[in-house]
Design a protein that fits this description.
Blueprint: H1 2-23, H2 30-39, H3 50-76, H4 82-89, H5 104-111, E1 116-124, E2 127-136, E3 141-147, H6 159-162, E4 163-170, E5 173-174, E6 184-186, E7 193-198, E8 212-221, E9 228-235, E10 241-243, E11 247-251, E12 254-263, E13 268-276, E14 290-295, E15 303-313, E16 316-325, E17 334-342, E18 362-364, E19 370-373
Antiparallel strand pairs: 1-2, 2-3, 3-7, 4-5, 4-8, 6-7, 8-9, 10-12, 11-12, 12-13, 13-16, 14-17, 15-16, 17-18, 17-19
Length: 378
């Protein structure tokens, strides 16, 4: 009797372990679920003494605990299904502010796990501000911020409108408009979240940001006396293509030059210079030349942000522009830059001419069009 029971226990151990690993989903109460299965199984209908039953239950408990540990390790080590991962990301503390923006580059930063998730919170006077994430790709720094409302709190004013002042320190030193572009905000998923971004002026006479730095964010919320200060570690994600073609084209009184191109997983950055060949005049930014950017298949990129600066050069004022656009989905073999000008009802004081959809009418300048092969990396 004892020998048969021991053999039965051993077989039960093996069968139950294999079956549990195959069939048991992740649940809070794995023990009761498994015991209920065993109690209702044909094996449980055999007559066994109380001592044997307790022995089996103890072994089942150990088996079930082992299965629970396996599933815990799977979750901890990240070996989870895409479906479960997507579900977990919907949990508020794990979700990404970047995921809900119209900026395809920041959306890609979340999807490709390029951003650094932070979830650093500060609370003053019952108001909680949380920095959710940050990403830096060598062209721009983007920060996701959210307000964690109290139960029943429902503000109609957006977080961006509630922030009356933002100050930034890079490695303890203030950033001012001589070495960075200024802060640009963009909408996110709701009134309680916002995205802010900024860039250095490395292509416009300023110093580039280092590859790694500590950013101190100080945000003042209207109606709260003490600023919210948070330290944010920032690291360049790298993985970009950098070109310095310095190719120029001439049209009438303009010399148009492509000085630099940077392609990253989240940004396409184009630096251009417009100089006037007639030294007696200056560049008029309102009547200046803008650009569209296409890949070799004719897909046009959308503009994200940018900044302009004038530079005095031999008695004239060149116009330097850093334009930041959405990234290419895949690295193109070549890109084509098509400069254009806007058409006006009357120039220089009239408004843009609009098409039937209410969009400004533009006119491309074929003489300034440039196609550049993408064949080198940095």
């Amino acid at each position: 009797m004892n020998t048969r029971l021991k053999r039965k226990d051993k077989e039960l151990d093996q069968l139950e372990l294999e079956r549990l690993i195959r069939e048991t989903p992740v649940e809070i109460d794995l023990v009761n679920r498994t015991m209920n299965k065993y109690d209702s199984s044909p094996s449980a209908s055999h007559s066994v003494n109380v001592k044997a039953s307790k022995t089996i239950r103890k072994r089942l408990f150990r088996i079930t605990a082992s299965v629970a540990m396996i599933f815990s390790l799977i979750i901890i080590t990240g070996l989870i299904s895409p479906t479960m991962a997507a579900t977990m990301k919907e949990v508020p503390l794990l979700s990404s502010v970047f995921k809900f923006t119209r900026d395809l580059g920041l959306h890609a930063a979340d999807e490709k796990e390029l951003s650094t998730k932070l979830n650093k919170s500060v609370t003053h006077e019952g108001y909680t501000l949380n920095v959710t994430e940050v990403v830096y790709d060598g062209t721009r720094v983007a920060i996701g911020i959210e307000h964690l409302p109290k139960e029943g709190e429902n503000s109609k004013e957006s977080l961006s409108d509630q922030i009356s002042k933002i100050e930034l320190l890079l490695n303890g030193k203030p950033l001012d408009h001589t070495n960075f572009s200024g802060i640009v905000g963009q909408p996110s998923k709701d009134n309680n979240s916002a995205i802010f971004e900024f860039a250095d002026l490395r292509n416009q006479g300023g110093k580039p940001f280092p590859k790694q730095f500590n950013l101190t964010l100080s945000a003042t919320i209207t109606g709260i006396s003490e600023p919210f200060k948070m330290d944010i570690p920032v690291s360049d994600i790298g993985n970009y293509v950098k070109l310095q073609p310095n190719i120029s084209r001439k049209y009438k009184n303009n010399q148009f030059t492509i000085e630099q191109i940077m392609l990253t997983p989240i940004t396409t950055s184009i630096t251009t210079r417009i100089a006037l060949l007639d030294k007696s005049t200056t560049v008029d930014s309102r009547g200046g030349i803008s650009i569209d950017v296409f890949d070799e298949q004719g897909h046009k990129l959308k503009i994200s942000s940018g900044n302009r600066r004038r530079e005095t050069n031999e008695g004239t004022s060149d116009l330097i522009e850093d334009l930041r656009l959405h990234p290419f989905e895949t690295l193109p073999k070549a890109i084509t830059i098509k400069p254009y000008t806007h058409l006006y009802d009357s120039y220089p004081n009239g408004s843009f001419k609009l098409d039937k959809n209410g969009e400004p009418i533009i006119q491309y300048i074929p003489e300034l069009e440039i196609t550049i092969p993408i064949n080198s990396k940095e």
